[in-house]
Each structure stands twice: as structure tokens, then as C-alpha cells.
Amino acid sequence: MSMPQAARTDTGQRPVQATPFPFLLDPSSAALIVIDMQRDFVEAGGFGETLGNDITPCQAIVPIVRQLLKGFRAAKLTIIHTRECHQPDLSDCPPAKRNRGTPSLRIGDHGPLGRILIDGEPGAEIVPDLEPIAGEIVIAKPGKGAFYATDLQQILQQRAITQLVFAGVTTEVCVQTTMREANDRGFECLLAQDATASYFPHFKQSAITMMTAQGAIVGWAADTADILAAFHE
Ligand code: TIU
């Protein structure tokens, strides 16, 4: 829902209808961060599926993430894409991560999309519909959070970004971890709730409920259409 023109404040902040209360979006200080929309999480034969998961919820959000990208591109705002992946020699993949659980294939093993979650392999690439374009920032990250062992904080500081709009997968793992890392670093975090997915829909809902509880203790959640409407007020 777009808000009335009169609701805009003098500082350039535009209220976006959100949970638990409106988010004051300031496009001059905001960036979009699309978390891990990689073939390994979204396509058959990738890491997500080898962990035993149903990938259809992650596939379903691709058109909505595309709309967000289109809106942020049209508004000429900073766009960041992240990719969870490791070096071919696995030097940045702790055994504690690689040996977790009983997947059919482990990180670094050869699968239908190349070596699982290895930088440079087809599975570690972003899905074709959401491919980054020239000028967009792409961060390769070895952890679930995008701030751990990356330059993300410095990149955001250099651009005077103070607000982050989140999309991507999975809501309760890499999206939630990164939102919590960002919140602790002083960024205001808004999750595009229809542009994020989990292999477990009830985990997505729980993550959103937890993060927006207690007066937006980690951040806010809003629909993509309401976020993009703020650019046209
Ligand atoms: N397994 C799962 O839900 N997620 C991940 O391993 N990585 C991300 O969330 N990107």
C-alpha cells in the first residue's frame, strides 16, 4: 500500500507499511542486499536439495526478487548480491561446517552442478534470472552471515549506507544471520517478506515473527510492492 504524499518527512524518509510499525525508508541511504540466490540453493541437484530439502519455496520467490532488483535498479540505488561459497581447497570451510549432518553430498563434493558450494563452479553462481549487472556488488562469503570474513561493512560505510532491504534465501539461516549481524552494526534492516524463502515455510514465518517482535528488535518486514511504492511518492 502506498502512503499519502503528505506522509513524507522533510528528511527524505518515506514511510513503508511494515511489521511491527512503518519503516522510514530513506532511498539516499538505502541498499538492497540479495542473499545467496544461487543455483546451489534454488535448483535441483544443488546443496539445498542434497541436504534433503524441498527447493520449491526458494524457486517461487525468483520473480519477486526480480521485481525488487528492477525497482532498485530504476531508482539507481546500491545493490549487493551475496554468494555462500568456499575456495576449491576448502581452506575457508571449517571441518565443523563440512561434516555437519548426513547430506547425500558434502561441500566440495562433485554433484550435478559441479563441486558443491565451491567458488567458480556452476552451482555457486546466482540463478540466471537474478544475474548481477555491471556496477552491482557481489560478495563471496564463507559463512552464513555476510559480514563474517568479508568487506561488506567497509563497502557500506564507504557509500554511507545506513539502511538495508533484505531478500533471498534462506530466511532463517543466511538472511536472518546477516540481518542480525547488520542490526548489531547499526544498520536499519527491512526484510522483503515475499522475496525471501525457507525450505521450511514455518521456519520462515517464525524467523520473521522473532525478528520483528519486541518493537523490531532485529528489524522490520514489508511486502515488495509497499517497499517499491516508496520510490514513487
Ligand atoms: N541450509 C540452509 O537453509 N541455508 C544455507 O545453508 N545457506 C543459506 O541460507 N544461504
Overview of the structural elements:
It is a single chain. Helices cover about 30% and strands about 20% of the residues. The chain is built from nine helices and ten strands. It has helices spanning about 40, 45-50, 55-60, 60-75, 95-100, 150-160, 170-185, 200-215, 225-230, and strands at about 15, 25, 30-35, 80-85, 110, 115, 135-140, 165-170, 190-195, 220. The strands form three sheets. The chain has a six-stranded parallel β-sheet, sandwiched between helices. It has a two-stranded antiparallel sheet with strand order 1-2. The chain is globular and about 50 Å long. The model is unreliable at about 1-10 (pLDDT under 50). The structure holds tricarbonodiimidic diamide. The site of tricarbonodiimidic diamide has 10 residues, from helix 7. Tricarbonodiimidic diamide binds near residues 41, 51, 84 and 199.
Can you give the mean pLDDT? 95
Helix content: 25-40%
Radius of gyration: 17 Å
Broad shape: globular
Count up the helices.
Answer: 9
Spatial order of the strands in the main sheet?
Answer: 7-4-3-8-9-10
Query: Bound small molecules, which ones?
Result: tricarbonodiimidic diamide
How many beta-strand segments? 10
Name the structural class: alpha/beta
What is the succession of H and E elements? EEEHHHHEHEEEHEHEHEH
Instruction: Summarize the biggest pleated sheet.
Output: 6 strands, parallel
Instruction: Indicate the proportion of strand residues.
Output: 15-25%
Q: Low-confidence parts lasting 5 or more residues at pLDDT below 50?
A: 1-8
State the separation between the terminal residues, measured CA to CA: 11 Å
